[in-house]
Amino acid sequence: MSTAAATPATAVTDSALAFSSLRPRLFAIAYRMLGVRADAEDVVQDAWLRWDGSEQDGLQSPEAWLVTIVTRLSIDRLRAAKAERESYAGWWLPEPLVEVDERTPETQAEMAGELGVAFMWVLERLSPDERAAFLLRQVFDYDYSEVAELLGKSEAACRQMVHRAQERVQQDRKRFGVDQEAHRSLLGKFLDAARTGQAAAIQALLAANVELVSDGGGKVPSFPRIIHGIGAVTRLFCRTLDKFPGQVAYRNALLNGEPGLLRYMGGRLESALAFHIVDSSIAGIYVVRNPDKLAGVPQQL
């Protein structure tokens, strides 16, 4: 008995299923490139439109085809965004992916690999091509030959870009990735100290070269410079309690897959705080206050 040829409806279904299975990886690449959820979703949607309208017969690797499209679209969009970010009011931090509950299986693929706000902050130093090559090789584990094909460059050029990017990333940060429970435990101690304004307790948790970066986007007040040092960062948290007595509250959340905090003033969301941990100390605090980047976060405590 002969096997019937696939009907158009079956082909459409198979095409949609193939794209759906790859969507988490495509979003993960686009978000790490762009740092804005809506932009990443736009890139993935554009990729879907191109995929849906393409000739797929004989295509050997849907993943290679789609990753190529998403990567190149992300590079183009990031080049345009770089110019916009140069005129951004204050410091630009990525829009955090916030979960107030534990991550679901559907989000685990998005969170795979380096994703922390501190890591994304460092990636801003890279050119769009360097960022793409570095992410594809170091985070998503593509071979150099695959990276070269995806970016349309020589393998030697890709190796050079990844090496250059790796040097810049390591120069800015000793290492990324810390045990989740260790991160959560340290953050719990910081939360207790910050809630009560215990200066000595806060200081004991901070690294000597701790930095605090605040992003208000020109929509709300933020610091025009990066705050450095144990004393300055400690005074900032203590003064916030003094200035708003009885109004400051914190809520635990996952920010880009890592334990972080949501801060509320008078019961309303004021900021999302991400933390970078190095050698059991807090080396970086990244405060996202721009309301446009917090639209999907619970606005009331």
In helices, the fraction of residues equals: 40-55%
The largest pleated sheet is described as:
7 strands, mixed
Look at the structure and give the mean pLDDT. Answer: 88
Give me the secondary-structure category: alpha+beta
Structure in words:
The protein is an alpha+beta fold and 301 residues long. Strands 1-4-5-6-7-2-3 form a seven-stranded mixed beta sheet. α1 runs parallel beside α3. The longest helix has 27 residues. The chain is elongated and about 65 Å long.
Short summary:
The chain is built from 11 helices and 7 strands. The chain has a 7-stranded mixed β-sheet with strand order 1-4-5-6-7-2-3.
Which characteristics define this entry?
alpha+beta; 301 residues; 7-stranded mixed β-sheet; 7 strands
Please render the helix and strand layout as text:
Layout lengths: L7 H27 L2 H16 L9 H25 L11 E2 L5 H7 L5 H7 L4 H12 L4 H8 L3 H18 L7 H17 L2 H7 E10 L11 E2 L1 H14 L4 E8 L2 E8 L2 E11 L2 E8 L13
Parallel strand pairs: 2-7
Antiparallel strand pairs: 1-4, 2-3, 4-5, 5-6, 6-7
Helix pairs in contact: 1-2, 1-3, 1-4, 2-3, 3-7, 6-7, 6-8, 7-8, 9-10
